[in-house]
Amino acid sequence: MGKAAKKRLRDEAEAPATTNGPLHSALEALPRLMLLELRRDLALGPFDEALRRLGDSGRCETAPSEAACEALRDVGEEASVEALAAVLGLRRHCWGFTQNADAVDAACHSLKALLQPDKMALLEALKHGAAFCGSVKRHLGKHDGQSLMKLGKPRVMWLLGADPDDPATVGPNDAGATDEGGNRRKRRRKRQHQKAKQDGGNEENVASSGGETGESDEDSSGEGQKNSSNKGTKDEATLAFLQALRSKRQQNG
Fold it and tell me: Is residue 52 predicted with pLDDT exceeding 90?
């Protein structure tokens, strides 16, 4: 069993049970847009405020909305987030505000440094699929953008004014995540294969160059020995000439 399969089994074991209890039934009766709005409100504000927003504009006048409000209030924030993630099929892509309040506040503080045109430019870039961390660094810098990168793309986009149903903020469901993971693995294997071929070609070139270099070294060594031999012969001739000259002087003297 591969690492991906083991991780998927572990996630499924750790995930909350998706029962058909009153909470799940009440949430499933709501329109998807309302569920996505609730997802955003639970992530960016206190639990009571999220329920209040759910009840605004006469939404809780209908029986399904009223049942959902009551069920959410009964189970509390953490269980509500888990149930919402299960109903939406967004594993690990729903958040509660209480556990992430400091991170949300830090991101809000960092965004205050941007002018409105810059905020809109960042939002448009993220909507059109630009890399999240790269876009944040480009607009805020690596240091000032840390709080946004820690918070993550969906919540940062909501803080910038994105709609709760914007495709860029809706995380992949389980099936989509599995398919995307498979595609990433295929691309990674392809890159590794191409790199291995390239490295193999480089090794052949190095070996070929090394052989040629060896021959050159041998030639150079031979030439050096030849030059050394010639030099030695010249030195011997010079010594013989000096000895003959000395002997001649002695005879004349």
Answer: no
Q: CB–CB of 42/7 below 8 Å?
A: no
Q: What is the pTM of this model?
A: 0.61
pLDDT of 239-252, one tens digit each? 787 788 778 777 77
Instruction: Compute the mean pLDDT over every residue in the chain, rounded to the nearest whole number.
Output: 78
Structural domain boundaries in the chain: 14-96, 100-171, 174-211
| Sign of the torsion formed by the C-alpha atoms of 28, 34, 35 and 41 | negative
